[in-house]
Protein 1
Amino acid sequence: WVDTNIVCTISALMILYTDCYNTAFGYVGSGHPNMAAQTSGSAAMIQYAATNVLGGFAEVFIAFMLFLFSFTCLISYYYEAETAATYLFQKPEQAGIRKGCTWFLRIGMPILIFYYGIVGAAMAWNLADLALGSITFFNMLVVVLLAKPVKGMLKDYEAQKKAGIDPYYDPDKVSFKGVDVELWKDINSNYIAANK
């Protein structure tokens, strides 16, 4: 949220405010003389915008910020992938598969990072869009499959709110495959006992 909503918005406002931008029809801003040579959108626009305000130090500063931004994104993507593999193969008999997935990620991520560093920006973005689109497709599939249990849980939640009860989850009322019934009963034991 911070990266997308704050950092990107501030970057865009800096570019617009300092007139360091191009359009499809060529350079239209007046903020930095080198912008006329820029033919496509890139990190250079934000570097030029920052240079207008902070001077020569800005280019190094923005490059370092881009490094940190990229590094944190890569760490989060790796963490999400390893966590997903650990969840999918959590049974004791799947320990070998889980370990194999973890090593595949440990080796594959640096290779992908290197590859993204040597291909053109358009190809890198196309591959990133393909990966994100694939994840989105599978997430939407799961959302559709979970629609029925979610509707049941929503009805239970709304009934509890209407009755003036502090809402809690009772797996005896609404449950579906994959729910750890005993865990949820233990977590909400006080609520369940009080409302029986």
Note: The first helix runs from residue 2 to 17.
Protein 2
Amino acid sequence: MKETKAYLHGNGDLQKTLVVVFLRGGADGLALVPAVGDDDYHRLRPRIAIAEKTAIRLDERFGLNPLMSALKPAVEEGALNTVHCVGSEDDTRSHFEAQDLMEHGGRAGGGWLGRFLRFREKASAGALSAVALGTAVPESLRGAPSATAMRSINDFAFSGSNDFVRSLQSLYQKQSGVFGARANDTFRALARLREVHTKDYSPANGAEYSSGRFATDLRLAAQLIKARLGVEAITLDLGGWDSHISQGPAITPNITRLADGLAAFRQDMGAEMKHTTVVVMSEFGRRVTENSVLGTDHGRGGVMFVMGQNGSKGRTIANWPGLARENLVGPGDLPVTTNYRDVLFPILSEHAPDADMAKVFPDHKPEPA
């Protein structure tokens, strides 16, 4: 096992994994982490605001949506941090442009996560070093030394017979150079995955995943990480956050899916969370004032979550301007007071101190949150 792990990693005993969850559709930060201690929040959202008495208090100003109660232990044990008024410099309020800019990490070529995996002294090109749980590799992983999209372990397999695979493997077995190394790495990964798949995976520590795609993806993420396959980055999506109409009923199921999924993943991982960081992000937040049909329109500043090992206490990081009209931007949006790259910067630097962060986020002067 140790030899296989080292080979698949390409980085010796590297064990750290970054899991990136993208909430597509512009998740409302004031619904996920409402400013229940700010009187203007209740004034501007008279019908859709979260009541102060029902929120899971984070500090004197912020709370978690009560639908996220599954994450209360993570907050109390210092494993979950939230960042408010976070976003990018994009002000188009277009889903496509905002997502594109954020996933590329600015105007540079390729994706920020792909560059992170590439620009390191010990960059790994293992067949499973980067896994996108979906039907396609996201823009954030473009340019990675290696990236694989899958919906299940069955997706990572040759379509031919075992005889065909053995014949193909014999062609590359004694090959040297890049192609030989990559091919043999892939065959080793396939063999290891077959071992994993033949075992009936049972979540550890009494964790129970709900049904649905998001929970299934998180369950697979936990399985891949714990199997020691050399996975360094995993991406997955949770869509459906565009809440122009009837925001409460529209996003209630998603809020529960997000919280329950993350809580089950953390419980399943157990001690492995010491080597794992989960980042949750969205392309932008929503307008502060509710609209006439009980929804919210596209805005600017939103929320990010960072979940990892336990600390002293879960924190809310916010350069908070307040919700008075003069403190808002555009048609009435939360300003972006923390750039999303400044949240990612210290996380990436901790996961791989040898990463060339100037190449990961070019043309950005870091002010790490």
Note: Residues 1-13 have pLDDT under 50 and may be disordered.
Protein 3
Amino acid sequence: PMKTLGRTGLSISAVSIGTGGGQAPNVLQYGIKRGINYLHTSTGYANGKAIENLGKAIAGQRDKVVIGLKITWDVKDDGAMDAALKTLGVECADVAFFNIHSAAEVGQAKYREGAERWKKAGKFKFLGLTSHSETKACMLAALEQGIYDVLMPSFNIGMLDDFKPVFDKAAAQ
């Protein structure tokens, strides 16, 4: 099944593939052929192999996928952004995710400035936030900022009751 990703209007598969394990291109292509269109990667996954494999997997079929790119480098490093997009073989990512693990850091001006610069340059279409520490607080802080289009928290179903206010607030926005 397909779902609309928040306020982006992007239609994504209910099941996605994260490339943290550095999956081989044929594994990623298998998922794409079966309708999985949302793929998430980072230059830091599997020592850079994950983003390379995703680039190989999507070659010639950019129109079939929605790409989430986790930014793990300094927000002022335009060269790292260009290198990541080149490795993927794309002009821009659909969603660029800042990887922030402190609620106090979410609102720092450097993120807004970097996002505005990269978005204006056509490096990505929508801005997201991912977090693995202080996750609930980071997500709430991101909602307060109003610049994030997508939230991708580290989450499991056992956290549902605690995160319900976050999800309700995000849905309202």
Note: The chain is about 40% helix and 25% strand.
